[in-house]
Amino acid sequence: MEPTEEILLVAYRTMRTIRSFEEKLVELVTRGKLGGFLHTYIGEEAVAAGVCANLKENDHVASTHRGHGHCIAKGVDVRGMMAELFGSSSGICRGRGGSMHIADLEKGMLGANGIVGAGIPLATGAALTAKLKKTGGVGVAFFGDGASNQGAFHESLNMAANWKLPALYVCENNGWGEFTPTEFVVPVEDIAERGRSYAMHSLIADGMDFFDVYAKSGEAIARARRGEGPTLLECKTYRFAGHYVGDTLVYRSKAEADEWITQRDPLRLFETRVTGEGLIAVEDLRRIDREVGERIAEAVGVAEAAPFPDPGELLRDVYVTEEAGR
Asked: Which pLDDT score, from 0 to 100, does residue 240 have?
């Protein structure tokens, strides 16, 4: 199904918000305003936007250490996210999660995750729950190409295929597992081949093209809702920056990155297509750019003004107390 104008406008706002949010984060880290590891999603925006454009509120998503984009695409408030990165008490996890552990169960975000592949069983569990409770929901796991070597990946796909769970496994294959090229550690040309070994419906999408990701994830999610079982969707994509902010990038050539950035930027590809085909006016895109910029600036101001958490709440939500257990 072709996306409507409304879906396209939401998709552009999502991708622009992810890009602007992370560009601001990089600036804040560089200025010493934010601490800790920061893994950006810049360059991969079309994957999160394309998949989540097909999801509903009762669907659940599990993310990775590069999870800001998935959170934003699933509807997590950027003000709460920004405050979380500042370690503020108004953060979405009260300032105790930070960049790699943002979760918002009300939005169906089961959490970003610092452990490679650890979100895959969580999404499988969400899919099992949806099937047993007949909610009509879908469990979606985002993970990188390196995670397809983890045991949790294979166990989850085997279970999901055998039980025909309403699950979607989205492999964001950006060609690099931290600092190692994918072909050095993965013996198959396409990660999607691994899904077929579990008799699982498998697809490959151009991860820089919102339209392709939207169409193929839409097909997969529709199959899941019809009770036809899970899908492994491999999205061929690229991270524009290094593995983390501060990465010296000595392991890949500048020419390689420049080619992707200048020729395959997902926001630029999107704009060229929607304006060229008369689907959206350029003025509408520029208006969204301004609105997103104002929203990000507001989020920074709110985060900076918020107090740090009370140290007395350090163990809150960590242990179940007798009082809480009643």
From this structure: 96
Among 91-95, 272-276, 284-288, the least confident range: 91-95
Q: How many whole angstroms separate alpha carbon 141 and alpha carbon 267?
A: 23
Cβ–Cβ < 8 Å for 173, 235: yes
Residue 246's region, left for phi above 0, alpha for psi from -120 to 50, else beta, is: left
DSSP alpha helices (H): ranges in the chain? 5-30, 45-52, 68-73, 78-85, 119-133, 151-163, 182-185, 192-196, 210-225, 254-263, 266-276, 282-305, 322-325
CA torsion sign, 165 to 166 to 172 to 173? positive
Distances (CA, A) of 168 to 132, 134, 157, 200, 253: 17, 17, 10, 10, 33
Q: What is the pLDDT of residues 165-215, one digit of tens each?
A: 999 999 999 999 999 999 999 999 999 999 999 999 999 999 999 999 999
- Report the chain's mean pLDDT, rounded to a whole number: 95
